[in-house]
């Protein structure tokens, strides 16, 4: 099979298209033909060598996979060849105390697909059968690949780590991003009034089209003042934050008394300072969020099947242009998800 592998870290674009032996599933694994695989900031961190976890090279990156089961290990009972699946990228052990209670995102022996084992920038991938999620009718491979990571991350933040009550104000940071675009739709679907942010007119327009009632220009250094103005000085009940750095500090200025910030990323900086006085006086909460549980990914796909959650897809590349796709992601001139399709007609003669 063909796979695009990262061969060196710390240098952009160090990928090679290789012909590898078809992977063989262990008794509890499944071999999946990759039909669509989403790109994620995680892939760029792996490329840069900026991840706090070791990565063995060469490595096939890509964690947002949708595809079709080709072969099953001898011990797998719940699936059959040809089943259409999404793959949960936070691979969990299924046995630790957290997995047993359904908190797979807290797994003690969790692995990241495409980081700690080979992922989906390939024609085929082998994964434990327990991380397969059935694709509901009406959800195509690209929709699934574009939503299973960022969409389910937002679902986990809004329905597991925090709670949205109808009428709540929710601020979704970066409305044109993967997490932000899903957070707008999910929060609105849960009955919230949604404010979002964007750095360009086009991004703000996209956030408004997804259902944000107000969209603020995040290049204005005092953008939190606009959130306070919109909410009549009250502030928002919940912030969905995934940027970190300066943004995480600023969102506390947007927060109502008793409000909650849920954060799942630190692209803009991993170390922040915060003023503890308003934090405890206003009884704020800061909640971390990481990955997703099976229930979140199932809910995400159900919302997609029901037409309540639509992916924003920027572009789709064939497998042999994975390096160009990652360069496009690095450029940050993107609207929504970039996908790789290993089986576009152009490459099927291989
Ligand atoms: Zn576990």
Description:
By secondary structure, the protein is of the alpha/beta class. Helices cover 27% and strands 26% of the residues. A hairpin with an 8-residue loop joins strand 1 and strand 2. The radius of gyration is 20 Å and the shape is globular. The structure holds zinc ion.
Major sheet characteristics: 7 strands, mixed
Helix and strand run:
EEEHEEEEHEEEHHEHEHEHEHEHEHEHE
Query: Could you tell me how far the N terminus lies from the C terminus, measured between alpha carbons in angstroms?
Result: 10 Å
Low-confidence stretches: 346-350
Q: Average pLDDT across residues?
A: 95
Beta-strand fraction estimate: 25-35%
Number of helices: 11
Identify the bound ligands: zinc ion
SS class: alpha/beta
Oligomer: single chain
Rg, please?
20 Å
Work out the number of β strands: 18
Principal-axis shape: globular
Q: What is the share of helical residues?
A: 25-40%
Short characterization:
The chain has 350 residues and is α/β, with parallel strands linked by helices. It contains 11 helices and 18 strands.
Question: Could you give the topology of this structure?
Answer:
Layout: E1 2-6, E2 15-19, E3 29-38, H1 41-48, E4 59-60, E5 64-72, E6 84-87, E7 90-91, H2 97-100, E8 111-112, E9 124-128, E10 132-134, H3 141-147, H4 150-161, E11 169-172, H5 178-189, E12 193-198, H6 201-210, E13 214-217, H7 223-230, E14 236-241, H8 245-251, E15 255-263, H9 276-281, E16 285-288, H10 294-305, E17 313-318, H11 322-331, E18 337-341
Parallel strand pairs: 11-12, 11-14, 12-13, 14-15, 15-16, 17-18
Antiparallel strand pairs: 1-2, 1-4, 3-5, 3-9, 3-18, 5-6, 6-10, 7-8
Helix pairs in contact: 4-5, 4-10
Bound molecules: zinc ion.
């Amino acid at each position: 099979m063909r796979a695009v592998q990262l061969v060196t870290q710390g240098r952009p674009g160090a990928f090679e298209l290789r012909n590898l032996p078809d992977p063989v599933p262990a008794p509890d694994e499944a071999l999946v033909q990759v039909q669509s695989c989403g790109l994620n900031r995680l892939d760029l961190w792996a490329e840069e060598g900026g991840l706090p976890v070791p990565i063995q090279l060469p490595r096939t990156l890509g964690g947002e996979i949708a595809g079709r089961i080709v072969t099953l290990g001898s011990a797998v009972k719940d699936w059959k060849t040809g089943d259409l699946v999404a793959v949960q990228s936070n691979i969990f052990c299924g046995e630790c105390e957290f997995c047993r209670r359904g908190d797979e995102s807290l797994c003690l022996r969790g692995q990241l697909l495409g980081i700690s084992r080979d992922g989906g920038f390939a024609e085929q991938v082998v994964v434990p059968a327990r991380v397969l999620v059935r694709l509901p009718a009406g959800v195509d491979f690209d929709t699934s690949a574009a939503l299973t990571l960022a969409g389910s991350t937002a679902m986990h933040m809004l329905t597991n780590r925090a709670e949205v009550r109808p009428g709540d104000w929710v601020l979704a940071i970066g409305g044109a991003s993967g997490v932000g675009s899903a957070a707008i739709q999910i929060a609105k679907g849960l009955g919230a009034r949604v404010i979002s942010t964007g750095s360009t007119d086009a991004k703000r327009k996209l956030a408004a089209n997804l259902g944000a009632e107000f969209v603020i220009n995040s290049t204005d250094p005092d953008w939190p003042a606009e959130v306070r103005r919109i909410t009549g000085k009250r502030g928002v009940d919940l912030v969905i934050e995934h940027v970190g750095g300066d943004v995480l500090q600023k969102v506390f200025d947007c927060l109502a008394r008793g409000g909650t910030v849920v954060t799942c990323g630190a692209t803009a900086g991993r170390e922040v300072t915060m003023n503890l006085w308003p934090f405890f006086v206003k009884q704020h909460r800061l909640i971390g969020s990481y990955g997703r549980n099976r229930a979140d990914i199932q809910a995400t796909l159900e919302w997609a099947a029901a037409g309540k959650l639509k992916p924003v897809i920027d572009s789709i590349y064939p497998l042999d242009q994975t390096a160009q796709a990652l360069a496009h992601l690095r450029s940050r001139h993107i609207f929504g998800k970039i996908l790789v399709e290993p089986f576009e007609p152009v490459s099927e003669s291989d």
